[in-house]
Amino acid sequence: MSAAAIQDFRRIWRVTTIQRDERTMMLLSWLALAGASLGLIGAGLAMLSHKAGPLELLRVVLGVAGIWLGMIWIMLFVPGSILLNSPANARLVPRQRRRLQQMAVGSWVLVTAGVTAAMGQWAALPVVGISLIGLALTRAGRTEAAPLFLVGINWQTLSRHVLPPAVVDAAGSNAGLLTLSVLLLPMGVWALRTLYPAAGDRHLARRGEQVKSAQRLERRGLANPGEGGRLSRWTTARIYPLMLRRALRRPRPGVLLMHALGPLAHWSAWIAGMGGMLLFGAAVRLLLGWRGGDALREFVGGPMGAGLAALTIVIVFSTAAFSQQIRKTTGEQSLLRLTPLAGEAAQLNRRLAVQLLRTALRNWLMLSAVVLLVTAMVGGEREAVLRQGALCVLASQVALMGLLGDFAGEGGWNVPLALQAGLLAVLELVIALGLARFSGTDVWAWVAVIAVAAGAWQLRRGWRMMLSAPPAFPAGRIG
After folding, report:
1. What is the per-residue pLDDT for 453?
2. DSSP per-residue letters across 140-178
3. What pTM, to 2 d.p., does this model score?
4. Among 22, 333, 84, 83, which Cα is nearest to 212's?
5. Are 61 and 43 a contacting pair, CB within 8 Å?
6. Model pLDDT, residue 301
7. Residue 2 CB partners (closer than 8 Å, separation 6+)
């Protein structure tokens, strides 16, 4: 490798990761350091007790390195490199496009090898590689590649409960693994051409979608699942205008402040998602009644139960949507500030905070009710419903972290805050587990109690911060 190539790689790496979002890079580094420390301590204790050897220690190191590099690759490098490969650059600077492709392939190989080594099963290498390809393409706006990622992460569940045994045995054989590994080559070539097109009409046509997807997890907002989908847009277009006309008949400054954020910050944006969850629960219920068996019931109680628990993350996204819309609708906010309907400037933050809390509470009640109803529909026992309720409370507490703040500056949800929220949730779960073992009570009750206490503290802190900040509208004008 020439010195010029190494210099190119260093420059591209700095531009797409460190210089692009230094704070997120720092948090990921600290997270990797904490994970490596805990892993090494655990592996060292296991070696001292003769329960593990140096190979397990090496697996821990490779696993932490692979996961850390994978998070940087997906969160920073892939979107940053896509933004670098504009149609003009792809045509005028072909060497840059070639270097971006080489770095993408090298990172993909390292992440795949590291995660596979941590799993200790080299038979999982094709599945891990396909999952990363699907995740990178999805991150670049190619949502049609999402099934690759979903099939990869659910391969164990699919092989046990869904796919015919003959197909699973053929895929797990030496010939099957070799075939799947070879198929990664043309799939990787297709992924590279999709991620980094060489200019042309197709590149120009898809550039807007690429940029929008790459910036979806920028520091000034998180992705909003309520934004996409024809059904979601249809329900918003039918219900939201009725609510807006009703608000204009009896104008109140606080209510109109929320309408300035647009229809995606309204509760009607989540009707399609809630309807999809209910349809899913009804379909599973019918399937259990039609083909009820031990294997299917085990699948519903195990892997699908974990998937139902993951539905509570929608509660977090429902409040992250507020931050995203506040950053998108600065023009509407400026126009509203010019009218008497905005009310006094001194009361703007207080009224906006009250409306944000009311809307967040309404969304939490609706989404939590749907999640609990779906859990009951698929045959969840009392314990499963209680677990889902505790997770809904925990999700609401996490959502409060970015709900209130200094929106005139850089307040609201962002990627570093999301990482902090995730670490706090893990810490709360660990504390709840310790208290449950010490007291002999249910762990999920402690999860709910700790989440309520932490949420009250966050709410008090965010309320004070927002009331002491400059008027929120128009957002982002300071800093």
Report:
1. 92
2. TT-GGGHHHHHHHHTHHHHHHHTS-HHHHHHHHSHHHHH
3. 0.63
4. 83
5. no
6. 54
7. none
Say if CB 334 and CB 270 are below 8 A apart: no
Calpha distance 385→376 (Å, rounded): 7
C-alpha distance from residue 202 to each of 78, 90, 349 (Å):
19, 13, 45
CA distances from 344 to 154, 337, 465 (A): 53, 9, 19
For residue 450, the model assigns a pLDDT of: 92
CB 222 within 8 A of CB 415: yes
Supply angle C-alpha 223, 205, 145, rounded to 5: 50
Whole-number Å distance between alpha carbons of 115 and 122? 10
Contact between 327 and 479 (Cβ < 8 Å):
no
Closest by alpha carbon to 308, among 340, 333, 285?
Answer: 285
Q: How many other CB atoms sit within 10 Å of the CB of residue 34?
A: 12
Which regions of the chain are under pLDDT 70? 1, 20-24, 26-54, 56-57, 143, 154, 157-158, 160-163, 199-201, 213-236, 287-311, 379-380, 415, 479
Question: What is the pLDDT, as a whole number, of residue 292?
Answer: 55
- How far is the C-alpha of 358 from the C-alpha of 257, rounded, in Å? 13
Question: Residue with structure tokens 């030496």?
Answer: 174
CA distances from 204 to 79, 216, 234, 479 (A): 17, 19, 28, 33
Predicted pLDDT at 430: 86
